Amino acid sequence: xxxxxxxxxxxxxxxxxxxxxxxxxxxxxxxxxxxxxxxxxxxxxxxxxxxxxxxxxxxxxxxxxxxxxxxxxxxxxxxxxxxxxxxxxxxxxxxxxxxx
Length: 100
Description:
Layout: H1 20-31, H2 38-75, H3 84-99
């Protein structure tokens, strides 16, 4: 298990305000022995938020790339007309075949 060590000059003290329910959750995590301090709880929450945010940004970039590809296809004429009624009919047929 690796540990993170911070040089004192790299640590900045912040004061945060939390809703009572969140503050109680942090206190429970510390009181339950899962964490040594409230700061540890907040640090882990921020690390997880950063990872989640990075994944969201990757997914957004992929979506933007897909959208651009679609727009490029439209601009280049690489599209074909579609029949809405036919699409609905094929979808209904698939649903019927799954329910058998």
